[in-house]
Predict the 3D structure of the following.
Amino acid sequence: MTMVFDEAFDVVVIGGGHAGCEAASASARIGARTALVTLNLDLIGQMSCNPAIGGIAKGHLVREIDALGGIMGRVADRTGIQFRLLNRSRGPAVQSPRAQADRALYRAEMRKVLEETPNLDLRQGMVVDLLIAKGRIEGVEMHDGRRIAAKAVVIAAGTFLNGLIHTGKRTYTAGRAGEPASIELAESLKRLGFPVGRLKTGTPPRIDGRTIDWSAFQPQSADERPVPFSFSTDKIIQPQIQCFVGYTTPDLHERIRTNLSESPLYSGQIKGVGPRYCPSIEDKVVKFAEKDRHQLFLEPEGHDTNEVYLNGFSTSLPAALQQDLVRMIPGLAETRIIRPGYAIEYDFVDPRVLGPDLQCRRLPGLFHAGQVNGTTGYEEAACQGLLAGINAGLLITGRPMFRLRREESYIGVLVDDLIRHGVDEPYRIFTSRAEYRLALRYDNADQRLSHYGKELQLVGESDWERFNQRRDRIAAVKKALRETRLRRSDATYAAVAAELGCALGDSITLEELAQRPSVSSSLVKRLLAPVLGSTVELTDVESAFADSLYSGYIRMQEAAIQRLHHNDSTPIPQHLDFRKLDGLSHEMIERLERCRPTTVGDARRISGITPAALSTLYVAASTDG
Amino acid sequence: MDTIVAIATSAGRSAIGVVRFSGPDCRGILQRLLQNPSFDPEPRKLFLKEILRGSGETLDSALVSYFEAPHSFTGEDMLEISCHGSPLILRNLLDLAQSFGARLAGPGEFTLRACRHGKMNLAQAEAVRDLINAQTAAASSQALRQLKGELSHTLQPTRELLIEIIVRLESALEFVEDDLPEVEAATLERKMRKAETEIKKLAATFATGRALRDGINVAIVGTPNAGKSSVFNRLVGRDRAIVTEDAGTTRDTISESITLCGIPISLTDTAGIRAASGRIEQLGVERSYRAAADADLLVVMLDGSKELTPDDEAVLAEAATSKHVVAVNKADLDQRYDKSELPSAAPVVHISAVTGAGLDELTAAILQPFGSVDSDAAGLLITDSRHFDLLRRTEMSLKGSRDLLLEGAGEEIVLVGLHNALRFLGEITGETTSDDILGEIFSTFCIGK
């Protein structure tokens, strides 16, 4: 029986959040006729939680998305109202850009970008079922009976799958506050046999800015020299605002403790696992009872609104209690809550069903991206959306799938972690997840990834030209670093030696100088000035400088990792029975059976596996067929 | 692919001990072992050859066979050397081979290479696995396996300390917006030094551990006619060395394998050391110095019936940098000085090669430094060179990171060495994943806006 469709596209993207937007944009630009289907077209690109993009490691992801030709960085640059480079005083590998964005402007800008994309259509509606024939995806069915044909489908449904909101003892189904949950699609995924789990996240109350005593808080200003997300951004156009920092009090903590029974987190009502790095205020006062204050951030939601995001105060306590608690915060005695905070439980699909292209191995043509894979965060979602969208587009145009490796990108680290290990709490990126942290810097994302963006035709001609010029400038700086010597006879020698407080010898190249721990890129730029003049930008020097600074350590680290990993690629046969291997303890067998590693490298990364067990496994894997 | 080496026969004393090599450099290593760069062994033939020490002395007469790829067990070039089965000889051969670039094989690595080169087929797989298990069992007796668990256990506190340091630095990098306590460089430095010291202490037990397992090289040194050869013969239990009353009778070094209290000893008698009179004696003295350099312990022989000579003092000064005991011989004659006059802090034993008096005390003094175990390591000795290697690497990584911290390098740079150290330790204790570290961070600090 052939299905009847109302419309036909190559690719359908379900969801208009950060994953869905990137997926739809990439797929369309790669050449697939694409439809983005979302519940509410007015909420495309909505930031469900705090109105900020980037941060440590997350900013790296946005840079990588941009280098590959994604859209998040550009949209954030146009709508960012407070740019800050985090860890500015630390090493270049751990610096990362972050920006508060105007929530409404971000939505509007994202929608505009999508509407301007050729090959891309927006459709409003709720997808209730995936249409499958002969083991391949055929399209989707909507709640109003419309059927859209598609050769590939990207699920980017966020927290909407079976979403259940908790405030106090009250619960209701929702995808976000005020928006319906997607129940049927979640059921459809279960019916298809996907392993589905339950996670939880939460959000703090939004408060009325007119009722805040701002003088009780410490202001936090934007950087004077804003570092944009996109390599193509020349200038940040939005006026920059201040955020404010304040603290909770012991009285407030006590009040929460005495009301814990009101919290669905502590009453056992919430079953899903929440993120440890984004605890609710209830969790904070219980788990870190010895702390007498917790930090809070007041983040204005935009230029044209009084709404302020009370960051650090995520809670699912009853709304009335939230109001009382907020008023116990110094400076918020008169404050009124506009939207109460809440916790939300939602379904996710075990990402181990996916390949490195984010395509379901069992159902070709179906891709999962974002929170549905158990991640948290706009940036984490967006980079998956980009990868899924790219591959959906490539699938349609008959080209080989695209994947990124751990060694070349944070996106590669994230995807690799997800598809190998799955998640047991909402997954967030951290720089410490990347073995090659020193090589994966925010400033060199273009050097690492732009060539892929070009090959995929996601990076346009003018951006490619811009990239080439920057690459050449960095090469020129590197050459100059190698060739320029600071000699004892130089006028600047004594001043530099005094500034660094160490011996420099008779002469030293700037490259050698850059490898000294206390040397800054601005010092190097100063010394380079007579050689290169004004032809290079500080960011070029910074990139060249960071390459020099880290090169030795990167080699050292590679040697150690290589040594450890030389057997990693040895496959473990599917049929290998761990119980039949001599010398494996019960504990090891259980761990191995739970994770079913496919290579020795996978097994090595299982927590708690001993070297002895690994050797046994390696011997068995190598000798078995 | 590098060239690997391992003792193929079981640990302990046996009639024959086989050392096996596999890899592209087998021929080159053989030529260097024989100190004959033109030796071109015909494959799959047996040769009786002298394996030479670095000093040019014979380590052992051994049967040598060479196999050319792909006609060998592993499918690579292979070399098998059948020595006399003294653990000490085998250990010395392994040391030599490693100095020529061979690497100690991991468990089952020969068989793995065989599999990789298609020398094993499916039907053989089961048998092969049994074989490997048998080899592993032989290579690591029950005692060794217990030691492995114990070692891992001993290292836990240091591993935890290392994780604590990493957690401090990582959280400072990752959670810059959180309200975390300041990282104090001085505190971190102290913790890093503590971890380093612990590792170093454990690694230092290797010399003792290995000696206890494989045996000890002992050389008897001293001025001519102190009675070295007489004592040598006494310890060997027969008249192995020629003894006369003429000073300088012993012209060459002589080695014998003996067992003292169950511990294998390679005992070497050396020519008396003095400003030599003739060319031959001169050569003998040079060999004495080399033997002394190779030894784990020196027995400095003095003649108690004579005044200390400048030559004696020179020998004592030479020995001062090595483990040594002083044996004052000829206790049966009138003694011309007491031990308080000796410029040596080493134990002094009075013996008589003629009557045999004091020999038990000498034996005890020889073994004493190898039996004394650092009490902090709770009796644990490192006996496995792989473990020693990993501990050394751990220590060096820690040291590198500490130096960088003191120089004011960024956290992310200091962390490279710390993570490497944790990786090396992980090869003994099991890997610490980045999730483990993050878990530790979240339970230590209140993270999250």
Q: What stands out?
A: The domain at 124-205+382-442 of chain B is CATH 1.20.120.430 (Four Helix Bundle (Hemerythrin (Met), subunit A)). The first strand of chain B starts at residue 4 and ends at 7. Chain B is about 45% helix and 15% strand.
